[in-house]
User: Fold this.
Amino acid sequence: MNGDHRTLHVINGSRKRDCSSLFEPDAWSIREEGFHPERSRFTESIFSLANEHMGVRGFFEEGYSGDSLPGTYVAGVYYPDRTKVGWWKIGYPEYYARLVNLTNWLMVGVELDGERIDLAIGRFRDFRRTLDMRRAVLTRSYVWQAADGRETGLTFTRFLSLADPELACISVTVTPLDHAAVVVFMPALDGGVINEDANYGEVFLDEVERGLDPEVVFLTMRTRKTAFDVCTAMTVRLRLDGAGKESEKIPFAEGHRLGWRLAVPVAAGRSVTLEKYVAVCTSRDHPRETLARTTTAKAQAAGERGFTELLAEHGKVMAEKWAEYDVEIEGDVCAQQGVRYNILQLLMTYQGRDPLLNIGPKGLTGEKYGGGAYWDTEGVCFPFYLYTDARVARNLLLYRYRHLRAAEENAARLGLPGALYPMATMDGRECHNEWEITFEEIHRNAAIAYAIYSYTEYTGDRSYLFTYGLEVLVAISRFWAGRVTYNPRKDCYMLLGVTGPNEYENNVNNNWYTNLMAAWTIEYTLDALDLLAREDREAHEKLVHRLGLTEQERWRWREIQQKMYYPYDDELGIFIQNDGYLDKEQITVADIPPEDLPLNQHWSWDRILRSPFIKQADVVQGLYFLPDRFDLDCQRRNFDYYEARTVHESSLSPCVHSIVASRIGYREKAYQLFLRSARLDLEDLNGDTRDGLHLTSMGGTWAALVQGFAGMRVKDDRLSLAPYLPSGWRKYSFQIEFRGRRLAITVEEDKVVVGLLSGEVLEILIHDRPYRVSKDQPAIAALRA
Amino acid sequence: MNGDHRTLHVINGSRKRDCSSLFEPDAWSIREEGFHPERSRFTESIFSLANEHMGVRGFFEEGYSGDSLPGTYVAGVYYPDRTKVGWWKIGYPEYYARLVNLTNWLMVGVELDGERIDLAIGRFRDFRRTLDMRRAVLTRSYVWQAADGRETGLTFTRFLSLADPELACISVTVTPLDHAAVVVFMPALDGGVINEDANYGEVFLDEVERGLDPEVVFLTMRTRKTAFDVCTAMTVRLRLDGAGKESEKIPFAEGHRLGWRLAVPVAAGRSVTLEKYVAVCTSRDHPRETLARTTTAKAQAAGERGFTELLAEHGKVMAEKWAEYDVEIEGDVCAQQGVRYNILQLLMTYQGRDPLLNIGPKGLTGEKYGGGAYWDTEGVCFPFYLYTDARVARNLLLYRYRHLRAAEENAARLGLPGALYPMATMDGRECHNEWEITFEEIHRNAAIAYAIYSYTEYTGDRSYLFTYGLEVLVAISRFWAGRVTYNPRKDCYMLLGVTGPNEYENNVNNNWYTNLMAAWTIEYTLDALDLLAREDREAHEKLVHRLGLTEQERWRWREIQQKMYYPYDDELGIFIQNDGYLDKEQITVADIPPEDLPLNQHWSWDRILRSPFIKQADVVQGLYFLPDRFDLDCQRRNFDYYEARTVHESSLSPCVHSIVASRIGYREKAYQLFLRSARLDLEDLNGDTRDGLHLTSMGGTWAALVQGFAGMRVKDDRLSLAPYLPSGWRKYSFQIEFRGRRLAITVEEDKVVVGLLSGEVLEILIHDRPYRVSKDQPAIAALRA
Assistant:
């Protein structure tokens, strides 16, 4: 992966703006020419598809005996994998929830005259794989070369229906180019799947039921312990040169794999196509008793409607999505491709359909991090959902509200009051299993409080805050009040033994960001309580009574907020990331030999911990969240100091630094970091895309453009923009929803145009000047230099 | 175990000096009256036997279906168990070496008229178990009560021969008291044993060979990966009322268990005895090809010599040991019992027979900590061996010298120069698997350097230092020089990101003890190099050349040593354990509710880490090692501060605090801590004796008496004593070896008497006054008040 790290350096260290050569620069597609087995897992991740209900990695229908992670996942279907740690410590969770790698439904084995097609073994040419981002369709083609030189063309097309998320369709076309051949298709379902990263190699699935009749095949697997039933059904259609064709289906079954064998003699130059229709339904959505019937019926109905019709229906939904979610960039195809790829993956992964679900760091594209919810959601992803569809943002808040009792139990297990939201969770219970993270990376609590604040500020809707949010805020404030240590010698409150967002330091005292956000949470909680008291005295009384909140407790909170300790260095004029940080050797990223990057793949953990290098936005995350508290000079001093030491080895980092860089006028830096976020996976900049896509940072890419380049935020209860055009760009545009309105924002070389697509007339701020936006009259303002 | 924790409080918090009621206070035995299944694993640990070659826990010959850890171990026979961690970090070791729980050779099943004896199921009375410390023999007896009321007496005796360490003997006597009965013995060997704490439940052993003929049974098991062959052979003899008796042996075999069934009709009131002779030989000591032959021959020869003769031979060796190693205490049977128990276990576990071996924290009495060598050896155990038999101490030093290359590789893996000795090891490679320990608890290096110093100072023999020790010292100094961080703002050197001896704080900066000992190592290394240069210029030149040691490097070492940073608090006049320690809430052990102790079994790890409570001697360990550097007031201030915050939840802690308490005149405190060390296991003071005995701290008990109460050390190249008599004691005495002399030291109420048992006339210091000791003329000095 050295090539990729060089690319990273180009992006990070210079003005060069070429995309890497892995994929053709193209505004609407991701295209791979030629097959690269040495990065097969990487491209499998890149070509992942999903439709919020389920996801499938870009592995091969016909099977592949080389390195591969054939992963198919269904949102919310997980297994509580017994915790694995070196030495048990009191407080560790019982299990790590893992999305289960479920029945592989992609399989369509292909034999040509008795020879099994396997790209790891045979010869082939003209391999090409394309993700059509406009339609969310993946195609793949190559010409297979038999030992005797005869050639056969193969084309594979797949999509996961956005119109009916329980449906996936695959089409495989085989064309013996210069010979007649017997083509055998072996469409199958395989429930004999294991999670590659299971802690103890346990099998997560049992077979419950199967069916293998001439019309439909189905297989119901049940997750152990959690007892989710997942039924997968398939049916197929054959077409010869486009016309329907019948063929005998010879059933086969081996272990948990079952399917059919269909043999078709094909003349030279003619094409045979197998269409496979797959339905995947679970007991999360359907009664267990009728699950198999529901699923098989759905697969059969799909087969009857046919590939073309289903694809058209799917494409129509995708087109509607793009009409609202597209971000257009003129003059920078690399950025355009990256942003669209990020948006597409976000739309395919999570749109708030199921409020019991959340968005995992890898979405539905891999097994790492188990598929649970992390603080990524509130820390980075939240604005994308908030600004495009506040109902989704509200669902994300409700997700945490539902887990409040579990978060209280989590705090109690550590001997602390209030609520500590988990570092990683599927059902509200903590799953993470490293003391320095599980017990210490407590700043995650603040991000959840901050999301409540953001939602309330952006929507102007206080009902969530008063009905649900305050209860969460009080519980988090109670946690902070229990977690601080009063230092009588210095007369201040400290947070000892924490891990900040920078996970390259562990168990530090007084992480500036954590202290800042803890005090902020308390302040916001107190303010929100006062607001409720003013607006609805009775509701306030009831809440205070129900939560047992005393005046004394509030007094103590106020004291903690006022006497919080913030490490600061007078000489440098910067906040100190945490006590002792400045005692480290103060070298910068420029001092790291390029071949040592990323550090987490080259340096011992000991060396990383003792280095000054920062994994991800830490002090800068505080500047991002609370910009009004720090003047621009202060922000610049801190940004200068910490950006020079930040290696951005968390995908969540470049977008946050980019936004702050935009704010302080570091436009070239902002652009570099934006591009790093936008193309993180496409160029494998962190060297770990093989494990899955960095879904949560994709929301950050969008935010880097909207909050960064366009300077969008809420000021004095009004939508406010402070846009600029990154150098070299001719134009960019995006849409947002704001308090019942849909707005289209276009930033051009000399002006910004804000149009109202729907909703009431609105006053907004552009560069702090008020503008009126109506359907007839967009706001047009000149750009600042 | 609440009862035990109360006991701990009594010992720690008051002047009460009763032993707990678990075992009868007795100077020469450990006796349990009545069986207590709720603490079966605890007593199994207590009644462990060993003979340096092998060890066996105190489980039951006849089998026991209740809670039990039937452990039989052979020193040096280990399995490299694949590392288990939550999240892999670069630098982690590949495996954790574990002593293998080997073929269970203790088994002698007993049936009475077809009823299998099992104390977990049946009724019985008068259970008694006694460890005869004088002879190192374990006996156990009870009266079994059949359902119909008939009673049968059973007596079990076992010893692991100290005369021939490959031999163990068991005798089982059955006496139907009031009825005739058919007694069936089922002596067996069982190789189907697993290590309870295997990381992934792997089986460590394969069967290689077995034999089951009428004279002898044997079973050879081979450890996987390491391929140690361990052959266990047995033969038996029957005696009826003391006279030899023949009986048919019906062979049986099931899985890896094989043995004989011997049925004997016994009249009422008469006794039948089965003697089982076991030999355990390994490919570590014998050629693989003849291993079975060697082992079976040894078992058969033992059977021919008979139980009585072998026991006498064993007892004779033990008596010789006691003649040299016994510590006599008059006036305090609890202390006497504890000290003898500690000495017995030490003598049974490690006497330096095999210089390739070391002493594990649990010796051969359990599986925890894998049986590898920790810094316990040098940190606490070393003086016991050094003062009683310097050849053993030298072997312990050579053990580390042999591992120097591995220690260099260990440092290199972390990206550091020089040598980092492992936290835990069997073959020199690091086995520990927690970053905060493995990578950070680097003070262990200093203990290894300090042992070289101690040996050289005590023996006066510089040959080890010059031939081997200096190479180790240079490698360790190089490690420190690579590990420090220069702080230009403060113009000093710091050690960042370390874990001190107090493992209840992790990843701290500037642990005072570590900084102190790192600088001390460098200083001692430089001094030793200068000494060599003075004494043998040529050898010095050769060494310097061979190690590539430059003047520049030595200059840098000197600078580091001179500019090392030592955290100190002016207001309190104490060394600060590490940066930030005083920011913690400064409560003391007296503030902990008794039911919360030990903290590590009641508090979340988070709470422990954030508390000021100290697991084990940390600053005080520095005072212990380098007393001459700190005046008594300084030592008192630090002791007062840290002892009040130390929970002593490491067994290595009370002895060290006790010695420092003795030095600073805190006699009652010194006694309490001594007793806590001496009776740690007998009273289960740390609540974890069930996992095995705390072998390494047993050496510390001895040191607390010799270095503490008797104030023994070397001063100006002379043996020096500063003894006192703990209150309530009438007298104590012990022997040591010093530079070819054997000395007997007796401390009485008004005087100390030092006699010379062998060797040349010697001048020693008592309370800093010189005395001459010859064979004719002991030194007699008055005690100081």
